Amino acid sequence: MGDAMATLHTRSAARLMIAPSVLLLLAWMIVPLALTIYFSLLRYNLLMPGMEEFAGLTNYTYFLTDPAFFQAVFNTLAIVLGVLFITVVGGIGLALLLDQPMFGQGIVRILVIAPFLIMPTVAALVWKNMFMNPVNGLFAWLAKLVGLQPFDFLANAPLFSIILIVAWQWLPFATLILLTALQSLDEEQKEAAQMDGAGAWSRFIYLVLPHLSRAITVVILIQTIFLLSVFAEILVTTNGGPGTQSTNLTFLVYAQALLQFDVGGASAGGIIAVILANIVAFFLMRMIGKTLEA
Amino acid sequence: MGSITLKNVSKVFGAHAVIPSIDLDINDGEFVVFVGPSGCGKSTLLRLIAGLEDVSDGAIVIDGKNATELPPAKRGLSMVFQSYALYPHMSVRANIAFPLKMAGEDKAVIDKKVADAARVLNLTDYLDRKPRQLSGGQRQRVAIGRAIVRQPEAFLFDEPLSNLDAALRVNMRLEISQLHQQLKTTMIYVTHDQVEAMTMADKIVVLNRGRIEQVGSPLELYHRPDNLFVAGFIGSPKMNFISGGQAASHHAHTIGIRPEHLVLSKDRGTWQGTVGVAEHLGSDTFLHVNADGIGTLTARVSGDFAVTHGDRVFLTPDPQRLHKFDEKGLAIR
């Protein structure tokens, strides 16, 4: 920016021009945040209207000592890490496959992108009713075909099932980003490595992976932002259960606010979720800051 | 050692024969330059030798062994690419060491060979830098370093100097020639620049539309071009071609005379003309003369020869240096 806006005049003009959007953004962010903080300090339950009173940090202590809270933090991280692992590894694999010259490449690529265009609720319902249903699901049918007992995914492995569903939705995104990165790899570099005696595996390790590192970083960054707040998939499949086995922070806050009508506690949970997300973001930025600089 | 023989090699992309059929012998230790206009198939030919493209027909024999079906790494050749193709995330050291690492050499051996290569190429101070922190010439040297550590049978250069500025190009040309003197390894060098070809080659292969027009030493090609194409391609400024009555008087369809073999005079000579443009280089002056009844001729005269636009001059071709061609464009000797 320093170079592009050399004179004092242009710089102050630039500030003036961006002021409206900054103000708007600030209001958009500050007002809800301030209100949430305010609510989090009140005893505020929708079942007892008009009885709000200042409660100090009670809501926070209550939320933080709730055993469901720790389960929710663990589940949140499990969903983020699990989905990241599946989408990055699977995305690299799919990108490598789609990069090969083949018949009908264009159509195959569109098909691969399709899951990303499906609404989360619809995707989750399709998985719940058509794949994972222990009676009518495709997986149950496959299991019965080979003489096995059908497995009730959502009851017996709820968190894993949700990770699977969410990963399926995000895999196209990762694949797409990684595929474009892969296609930007200089052909001559690959040929040079070939001349240098590097086999396919060595070329992947020493050439392709380092080249993809930036794209992988972008995938991790963007996905983490969205994966911290997975909600619809949980709501329509397991409803956070059984018990709290598939409840993440977002869902816990929702349950607090709209199932128990505890606006104060939910607000406190929301603030805690924001703080945790910032901690994750901090580590994430430190971890990947280096890759983006390089 | 590093002799390479092409037997009846052809390359077809779809219905288009990029290289119809080529036979060529490259002796051990020779510096061979493939030269030709863009699209003449010279890079394809190099890639066929490297193994980066499969031949459609014919055989490639490297060092007495049939290498037609061998993968690139097994042919014992190293290649320097036009874009240098350095690995951007690796240091200079790791770049040069890469082929050795892939060959599974010892750490100590690798370190020694990399240090040797770096010394030869003046890269010792830059070993820990990344390619993007280097200048064009240094990158070029890293690419060469990566090629020489393997001690290949032959080096392949694919237009290695085309990304450098003019001054650096002259320098690197010299360095590559010196490297060839030092290593005495076979080198095959592809360029579209006939100056590079003339200055570096032991043997020049002139290619046009996938066919070899002529093979020979730089001076052979300069003095005895086989056909119009070679005559026009080799030498700068280009040879003047004259057809029609003037050519018929020499019993030829076309006659050619190089700009440096035209004697200029202000008062007498065979042909007369008006000076169009005079390009002063200092030591020489290139004159573009509109010769009466012949057309534009380029003449190279000493820088002292004082003429300007519009002057009348006389041109006399050196009869010993007159090239004659028949109607098919082949030289008459």
Short description:
Chain A is mainly α and 294 residues long. Chain A is 76% helix and 1% strand.
Topology:
The complex is a heterodimer of chains A (294) and B (333).
Chain A: H1 8-40, E1 42-43, E2 53-54, H2 58-65, H3 67-99, H4 105-117, H5 120-131, H6 138-145, H7 153-156, H8 158-183, H9 187-195, H10 200-227, H11 232-237, H12 249-259, H13 263-293
Antiparallel strand pairs in A: 1-2
Chain B: E1 4-13, E2 16-26, E3 31-35, H1 42-50, E4 57-62, E5 65-66, E6 77-80, H2 92-102, H3 107-120, H4 136-148, E7 154-158, H5 166-183, E8 186-191, H6 194-200, E9 203-208, E10 211-216, H7 218-223, H8 228-233, E11 240-243, H9 245-248, E12 254-257, E13 262-265, E14 271-280, E15 284-291, E16 295-302, E17 312-317, E18 323-325, E19 331-332
Parallel strand pairs in B: 3-8, 3-9, 6-7, 7-8
Antiparallel strand pairs in B: 1-2, 1-4, 4-5, 9-10, 11-12, 12-18, 13-17, 14-15, 14-17, 15-16, 18-19
Helix pairs in contact in B: 2-3, 2-4
Average predicted confidence as pLDDT of chain A:
87
**Order of the strands making up the biggest sheet of chain B:** 6-7-8-3-9-10
DSSP summary, beta strand count of chain A? 2
CATH architecture level-2 label of chain A: Orthogonal Bundle
What does this structure look like?
The complex is a heterodimer of chains A (294) and B (333). By secondary structure, chain A is mainly α. Chain A has one domain (63-293): MetI-like fold. Chain A contains 13 helices and two strands; from the N terminus they run H-E-E-H-H-H-H-H-H-H-H-H-H-H-H. Chain A has helices spanning 8-40, 58-65, 67-99, 105-117, 120-131, 138-145, 153-156, 158-183, 187-195, 200-227, 232-237, 249-259, 263-293; strands at residues 42-43, 53-54. Chain A has a two-stranded antiparallel ribbon. In chain A, helix 3 (67-99) packs parallel to helix 8. The relative contact order of chain A is 0.13. The model of chain A has no long low-confidence stretch (mean pLDDT 87). Chain B has helices at 42-50, 92-102, 107-120, 136-148, 166-183, 194-200, 218-223, 228-233, 245-248; strands at 4-13, 16-26, 31-35, 57-62, 65-66, 77-80, 154-158, 186-191, 203-208, 211-216, 240-243, 254-257, 262-265, 271-280, 284-291, 295-302, 312-317, 323-325, 331-332. In chain B, helix 2 (92-102) packs parallel to helix 4. With 333 residues, chain B is an alpha+beta fold. Chain B has two domains: 4-231, P-loop containing nucleotide triphosphate hydrolases (Rossmann fold); 239-332, Nucleic acid-binding proteins (OB fold (Dihydrolipoamide Acetyltransferase, E2P), Beta Barrel). The longest helix of chain B has 18 residues, at 166-183. In chain B, 41% of the residues are buried. Chain B has a six-stranded mixed beta sheet with strand order 6-7-8-3-9-10, with helices on both faces.
